[in-house]
């Protein structure tokens, strides 16, 4: 099979498209003929050799943890009914997704709904489950006014749609005219270019004096600071990440003076806070159900598998829209 191999940590150019041995399913596993593989910002950090929630793999390695395709073979102990079925899976701590064939545990599989394509399923099993977890902590209500940073990104686009479906007023922030136009198409009541001078004043004027109540922040930095200034008393700032490189932080005195709260959703013990059995799988199931119903439509940008390096570069440089997916 062909796959993307990483032989040394470093720049995107270290991602090499080459032939490698076909994997075989071990007991309890299936072999998937891959139709789409997800690219995550964490993949770029691991490629660089930086610390992340995932341990650095032994080299050489095939990156990637989100895949969709058709079950091509089953290992010992796996029901043969899986053969030929369209499936999607997050393969967990062990990478291997940037490939034409992937072996993974059968208990990680979800059957892809008929109305959902493989690239869209990949978006929902990884990025979608993260969005659903974020929303679990956000506790949005129809009377909320919600700010979504990076609203044209994979997670942000889902957050905008979910909040609108709920009946909330939505402010979507994005960088550049093309992304702002997409945010409007997704249903945002106000779409603003956070790179434009004075954007926060324009949003404040559009709100007519009403404050925002929730900030769903995946960017951090100056954009998040300006967005947070739009929150009124009782406002909630929820953090999922800081793609700008620096999180937005408040002093205790500032939080008390302004009457707002801040929460790093993916802080220690976040899965325990969701509670119940296998919360990650529950989030995956909920995400795929939202896509199957048409309530959430993931935005996907496709790259050929052989162009994984270009996909990494575009993602890091914020030159992508929606979820980045590799197509073998």
Indicate the topology.
Blueprint: E1 2-6, E2 15-19, E3 29-39, H1 41-48, E4 66-74, E5 86-90, E6 101-105, E7 110-111, H2 118-138, E8 145-148, H3 154-166, E9 169-174, H4 177-185, E10 190-193, H5 199-206, E11 212-217, H6 221-228, E12 231-239, H7 252-258, E13 261-264, H8 270-274, H9 279-293, E14 300-304, H10 308-316, E15 323-327
Parallel strand pairs: 8-9, 8-11, 9-10, 11-12, 12-13, 14-15
Antiparallel strand pairs: 1-2, 3-4, 3-6, 3-15, 4-5, 5-7
Helix pairs in contact: 2-3, 2-9
Question: Can you offer a commentary on this structure?
Answer:
Helix content is 31%, strand content 26%. With 328 residues, it is α/β, with parallel strands linked by helices. The strands form 3 sheets. Strands 3, 4, 5, 6, 7, 14 and 15 form a 7-stranded mixed beta sheet that branches. A 6-stranded parallel beta sheet has the order 10-9-8-11-12-13, with helices on both faces. Helix 2 (118-138) packs across helix 3 (154-166) and helix 2 (118-138) packs across helix 9. The longest helix is centred in the middle third of the chain and has 21 residues, at 118-138.
In short:
The protein is of the alpha/beta class and 328 residues long. 31% of the residues lie in helices and 26% in strands.
Cα-to-Cα separation, first versus last residue: 10 Å
Residues in β-strands, percent: 25-35%
State the total count of DSSP E strands: 15
Largest sheet: 7 strands, mixed
Radius of gyration: 20 Å
Low-confidence stretches: none
Number of contiguous helices: 10
Give the structural class: alpha/beta
Q: Helix amount, in percent?
A: 25-40%
Give the ordered list of helices and strands: EEEHEEEEHEHEHEHEHEHEHHEHE
Mean pLDDT: 95
Globular, elongated, flat, extended or rod-shaped: what is the shape?
globular
């Amino acid at each position: 099979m062909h796959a993307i191999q990483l032989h040394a940590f470093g720049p995107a150019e270290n991602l090499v498209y080459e032939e490698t041995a076909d994997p075989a399913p071990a007991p309890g596993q299936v072999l998937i003929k891959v139709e789409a593989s997800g690219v995550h910002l964490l993949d770029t950090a691991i490629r660089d050799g930086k610390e992340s929630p995932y341990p650095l793999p032994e080299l050489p390695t095939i990156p990637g943890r989100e895949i969709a395709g058709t079950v091509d073979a089953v290992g010992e102990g796996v029901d043969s009914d899986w053969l030929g079925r369209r499936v999607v899976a997050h393969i967990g701590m062990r990478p291997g997704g940037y490939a034409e064939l992937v072996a993974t545990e059968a208990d990680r599989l979800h059957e892809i709904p008929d109305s959902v394509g493989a690239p869209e399923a990949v978006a929902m099993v990884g990025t979608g489950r993260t969005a659903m977890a974020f929303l679990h902590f956000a506790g949005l209500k129809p009377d909320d006014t919600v700010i979504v940073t990076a609203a044209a990104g994979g997670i942000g686009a889902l957050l905008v749609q979910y909040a609108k479906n709920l009946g909330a007023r939505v402010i979507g922030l994005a960088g550049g005219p093309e992304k702002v136009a997409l945010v409007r198409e997704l249903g945002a009541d106000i779409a603003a270019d956070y790179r434009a001078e004075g954007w926060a004043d324009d949003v404040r004027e559009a709100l007519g004096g009403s404050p925002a109540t929730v900030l769903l922040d995946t960017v951090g930095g100056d954009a998040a600071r300006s967005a947070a200034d739009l929150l009124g008393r009782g406002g909630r700032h929820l953090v999922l990440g800081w793609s700008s490189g620096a999180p937005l932080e408040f002093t205790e005195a500032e939080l008390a003076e302004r009457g707002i709260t801040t929460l790093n959703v993916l802080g220690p013990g976040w899965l325990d806070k969701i509670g119940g059995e296998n919360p990650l799988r529950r989030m995956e199931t909920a995400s795929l159900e939202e896509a199957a119903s048409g309530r959430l439509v993931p935005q996907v940008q496709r790259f050929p598998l052989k162009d994984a390096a270009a996909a990494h570069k575009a993602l890091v440089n914020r030159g992508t829209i929606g979820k980045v997916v590799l197509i073998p």
